[in-house]
Amino acid sequence: MSEVRVLAAHEVDAAVAVLRAGGLVGLPTETVYGLAADADSADAVARIYAVKGRPQDHPVIVHISGADKVVDWASDFPSYAQQLAAAFWPGPMTLILRRNQRAHDFVTGGQDTVGLRVPNHPVALAVLSGFGGGVAAPSANQFGAVSPTSAAHVLADLGERLDPHRDVIIDGGDSSVGVESTIIDCTGEQPRILRPGAITSLDVERVTGLNVSAMGEAIKAPGTLDSHYAPDATVRLVDTAEQLEEVVAALAHHQFVGVLAPEVVQTPRGAIRLSMPQSNLQYAEELYAALREADRLGLGHVVALLPSGDDIAIAVRDRLTRAAQG
Ligand code: TXA
Ligand code: MG
């Protein structure tokens, strides 16, 4: 059987042609790779769900080339949402807005809202501009699994499930942010964070001057609960270097243990270091590749020392907490 084709970054026209023909494109973005389809095509979007093994009632984000396209999909663009778009698009932020009639149930999961994002990646932006329309794209992984941050990850996860005659992956290099976009509900008086990401509630407050309703670190976007972002390995979370030593010592008698921890923390004896980030940004960037590496090595356990801070560390803690429920 032939394998799905991986295009080079400059082969944007070929990727656009695939979208026009109703095919799927493994599309690089700065957060994670998406599995993209024409957001106006019920059949193409249905294939996203089939390939991912994703429940039908989960809404997908519609990716657009610029804020000028918001009116194509949303009936209302409140001024604070416009401020956010001006400040953070293109970028790792999805705005939930009231939908208009173009945003069909097959992208909104039947909700009266639509999620819109302008990704900050040259290949994604070139594909979106060339295509012109909206591109529905969830993360390009099997439902519940770790999101992909490289074309190789997409190929490994979905290569067998994509159709070599209709679909392609386009290689735009490694995703630089590494965790999915911040999702902000803009349908109320004040913005509400539904999923933490690189854009934090402090960023949102600074730009809008509004209070962001305190949702803590809980997850409110439909389809983000449960065991998400989970590798096959069992993930254990710790807060300190001492706890890391203890947990690894208890596990390492039985099996190989992988460790994720900031660079300043020493690798406990008997553990395999999967990531040693020098910053919270780097922790996020390397997170999913590290979890995938654990599975590639067949490790039974991963112990992660949670990063501290109110920046992108919030998103890293969120994803690791859910990986630990897997
Ligand atoms: O960074 C990202 O957001 C990546 C890249 C590819 O853009 N995409 C991504 O898509 O993470 P996905 O499908 O894996 O996660 C999208 C989340 C889902 O949890 C979904 O529930 C939420 O966005 N979402 C989409 N539309 C929504 C809506 N109208 N209302 C509430 N949540 C929505
Ligand atoms: Mg996802």
Topology:
Elements: E1 5-7, H1 12-20, E2 25-27, E3 34-38, H2 42-52, E4 61-63, H3 70-73, H4 79-88, E5 93-98, H5 105-108, E6 113-117, H6 122-131, E7 135-136, H7 151-158, E8 168-170, E9 182-185, E10 192-195, H8 201-208, E11 234-238, H9 241-252, E12 257-260, E13 271-275, H10 280-296, E14 301-305, H11 313-323
Parallel strand pairs: 1-8, 2-8, 4-6, 5-9, 11-14, 12-13, 12-14
Antiparallel strand pairs: 2-3, 3-7, 4-7, 5-6, 9-10
Helix pairs in contact: 1-6
Threonylcarbamoyladenylate is lined by residues 29, 31-32, 34, 58-61, 94, 96, 108, 111, 113-115, 117, 119, 137-139, 180-181, 183, 194, 221-224.
Helix-strand pattern: EHEEHEHHEHEHEHEEEHEHEEHEH
Residue ranges: pLDDT <50 for 5 or more in a row? none
Bound compounds: threonylcarbamoyladenylate, magnesium ion
Q: What's the tally of helices? A: 11
Helix content: 25-40%
Shape: globular
| Largest sheet, strands/sense/barrel | 10 strands, mixed
CATH class of the largest domain: Alpha Beta
Mean pLDDT: 94
Q: Roughly how many Å is the radius of gyration?
A: 19 Å
At CATH level 2, the architecture of the largest domain is Alpha-Beta Complex
Query: How many beta-strand elements?
Result: 14
